[in-house]
User: Fold this.
Amino acid sequence: MTGRSTNTRVLITGITGFVGSHLADYLLDDVSNVEVAGLARWRSPVDNIRHILNRIDLAYGDLLDLPSLKTVLAGHRPDIIFHLAAQSYVPFSYTSPVVTLETNVIGTCNLLEAVKEMKLATGYDPVIHICSSSEVYGQVREDEVPINEDVPLRPASPYAVSKVAEDRLAYQYWLCWKLRTVTTRMFTHTGPRRGEVFVTSNFARQIAAIEAGQQTPRLKVGNLESVRTFLDVKDAVRAYWLLVTKCPPGEVYNIGGVETMTVGEMLKRLLKFARVKDIEVVVDPARLRPADVTLQIPCIDKFTTATGWRPVIKFDQTLRDLLDYWREYIARH
Assistant:
C-alpha cells in the first residue's frame, strides 16, 4: 500500500477480531476506492479474515511496542485509522486488570504518540477512530435513561476504566495536538464471529452444541435480568464508516441499536430458533460479575443527526445468523 495510489488508505487495528473483520468486509465490498491494511500480532489467529487475506495488507506489530507502530504507520500512511484492538472481555479484566490497562490504555497512547510524532515531523494528519464503550457509563440511574453522551462516567470494571482512559486520551490529543480523533461509545452489538465468551454468542454456541449432541440439554447462564439494547455488527461497521467520513474531530458519539430487552428475553428469542426443544436453563454462579451493569439503553440522537444512520437489520435475523454461524463451526470441528 505504498506508492501514489489515489485510493483512501485505511488501517484497522484488531482486524483479526470480531468487529475488525466485519469492518474489513464492509470496506472491501461496499465502499469504493479503499485500500485496507490491518495491524495484527504475529500470533493472532486469522480465521476471521482468511477469506480476504488476498485483498488486504496484513502488517505485523504490537500496540505495546511503539517502534513497531511507527514502522507500520510510516510504511502505510493510512488516511483513516480505525483503532479497534483491545482486551474487550469485561470478566477477564477483573482477573487481569494490569493486562487490560496496559493493552487498552498504554496501547492507545502509543498509537496516538506515533501519529503525533509523524504529524510534527511530516504533517501526517489521519482521521483516527477511537473505539470506547458504553461500559464507561457504568450503572446509570433510571432517570438517566436513555443514556446520552453527557451522562456521568461511572466505570464499574477495570475494562470500563481502561475505556474511559482511551476516551479521554482521544480528546486530549485533539485538544493539545489537533490529532483528528473521533470517539464512539458502542453499546451491545453481536453477530457471526463474536467471541464465544460474550453472552449472545455463548448462548448460541451452547444451543448449537446441544443440537449436535455435544452438550447435554442444559444451557448455563449468568444474570438474565440485565437490560440491553442490541445491534447487528453489520449495522455497527456501517456506522463506523459514516463516523470517519461525516463527523468532526474531538467529538464523542453513542452508537447502538433500537431493540431493547433483558438478557433473559434475548435468550427466549434465541431458543425459539433451536432445533432441540425443552432445553433447561441453569444459572452458573461463575458467570456472575462482581459488579454488573444492568441498564444499558442508548440515546443515539447525536450520531443519527450527524450522519443520518439508523439500524436496519432486525435482531431476530442477527440471532439466526449467529446460531447458523455456530452450527457451521461445530460441524467443521
About this structure: Residues 190 and 233 are 5 Å apart (CA to CA).
